[in-house]
Amino acid sequence: MKILIAGEDAASSLGAEIRQKAEDLRRRTGRNAPSKISPEIGALALHKARSDEEYFVHYMRLLRYRDAYDTYDFDIPRRAGFVGAIMAGFKKILWKLLRYQHDRIAFRQNLINSLFTNAIEFEMAERRRNDQEIHLRLERIETLLREQ
Amino acid sequence: MNIHQILAGFADGDAISHEAMQLRDIIRSWGYESDIFVEPARVSPSLYQQCKPLSAYSATADDVCLHHYGINSPSTDLFLASPAKKVIIYHNITPAEYFYGFDDSLASELRAGRSRLRDICRIADSVWTVSQFNASELKELGVEKVEVFPLLFSPWNLDLIPEPLILQKFTRKLKNILFVGRIVPNKRIEDLIQAFAWYNKTINQYSRLIIVGSNRSAPRYYAMLRMLAGDLDLPNVCFEGFAAPAGLAAYYRVADAYVCPSIHEGYCLPLIEAMYCKVPVIARAAGGMPEAMDRAGVLYAGLDEIELAELINRVIADKRLNARIISSQTERIAKLQARQPDLELKTLLGAWLK
After folding, report:
1. Do A87 and A140 have their domain in common?
2. Cβ–Cβ gap A77/B197 under 8 Å
3. In a domain, A22, yes or no
């Protein structure tokens, strides 16, 4: 670890404190920590692509995992104190009231998303099939030309 | 005698383009004719009036031609064919491997740019770089005489009245962490988003990450970042796109900290801009950034995302630490403003000036 504050080495002072705090944070789980996604299907898996073609293949695979959004409850941020508690309570009630409509809209939107993803996949498959066909025809023409 | 400049591209908000305009103004103030020549297809419409097409370039052996080199382009061939005395200003070329998978054609342009570097430097009559870091890269390639002319900084855009719409957009009192720069893979913005996830979820829910910069340079990388922000459930990551000068001034105005996790930079002008706007700067100790910071702000290396989140928290929350950082940055800016680029340029051009 290297930390320089205004040109002065702070790795042993501030750096040590930061490391300790980070260890405490690391132990947090659930809603108090960032969501964890398997590295195989996480966005950063796109780093594995070594060419534009590979990127597209990876991207489509990852899109398949993301073509719908969930309707789980989420954590409502709240400020400390009485006003914070009242506001958070109000937001919770509001969310409960809106939830029915929200879920209906989410259902429709997710349906559209998955139809679009399917359409892209069909398009990709069709393009591949066309490419292969053209490739084979070219090979045949080249063979014929060589034989003549 | 003319002193013209040849550039690969000319864009608003681009550090090289702005430096070229400053150099042109200095040279013109000496009484020489000076213009900027660029391939028209690579010019931002707002800057059409500021430059001429490459096809209009002509020179004699008495003239001087400055070429800003950061990527392989037709402008380099024109520079090499010019009968004028040749000065190459090396702004660094991002290693191609960062772009594999994100943009194959750009990666091959970058690779070609690096492979020609040594030969171009050998043909040039004088080789300048904008940082010691860039100079050391050239020395490793065997280029012996390299002059350092640090990237010019002009705060004209930051002194503009900040764009009110942007100020209004970020009125809500959240802690704002800012990144400014092109959205390209060597900037490692994913590291910042991951650190922000920890900051936002475990330290301060009332915070947002503002990412300002063109997303057209590497759209596939941009798509990955958007996906990452979604994976981490971070609605407070704001991708703002390219900012006009008054907009940029507004983003710096609302920022509580500026963080640059880039792993390859020739110099990094936004660090200086943030310092000028009195925003505490946290940057990775990589490439030319330690040089641009020059013992100001915070430099880090070897931190994981949770440690970076905690460092950001300390810089924002610890008032004494914050004051110490701002004071060091103010000194750095004073030093930069005391520079006399006019004299530096005259010394570098030396005997060629009549």
Report:
1. yes
2. no
3. yes
If asked whether residues A141 and A95 sit together in one domain, one would say yes
Structure tokens at B137: 């890269």
Greatest Cα pair distance in chain A: 91
Which residues in chain B have their CB less than 8 angstroms from residue A32's CB?
201-202
Residues A83 and A129 in one domain: yes
**Angstrom distance (rounded) from CA B31 to CA B29:** 5
CB–CB contacts below 8 A, A to B: 120
Using a CB-CB cut-off of 8 Å, the residues of chain B touching A48 are 101
Would you call B233 and A35 a contact, using CB atoms and an 8 Å cutoff?
A: yes
Domain assignment present for residue A86? The answer is yes
Question: Is residue A109 in some structural domain?
Answer: yes
Q: For residue A92, what are the domain limits?
A: 67-147
Q: What is the pTM of this model?
A: 0.90
**Would the CB atoms of A43 and B102 count as touching at under 8 Å?**
no
Mean pLDDT score of chain B: 95
Lookup result for tokens 């940055």: B329
Residues A9 and A80 in one domain: no
Distance, in angstroms, between B99 CA and closest chain A CA? 9
The nearest CA of chain A is from the CA of B207 a distance in Å of: 11
Whether A137 maps to a domain, the answer reads yes
Q: What is the pLDDT of residues A47-99, one digit of tens each?
A: 999 999 999 999 999 999 998 888 777 778 788 899 999 999 999 999 989 98
Global ipTM: 0.89
B141 and B162 Cβ atoms separated by less than 8 Å: no
Say if residue A72 is in the same domain as residue A140.
Answer: yes
Q: Which residue of A has its CA nearest to B313?
A: A18
Domain count for chain A = 2
Contact B224 A44 (CB under 8 A): yes
| Category of B202 on φ-ψ map: left (φ > 0), alpha (ψ -120 to 50) or beta | alpha
Q: Per DSSP, what are the bridge partners of residue B212?
A: B180, B241
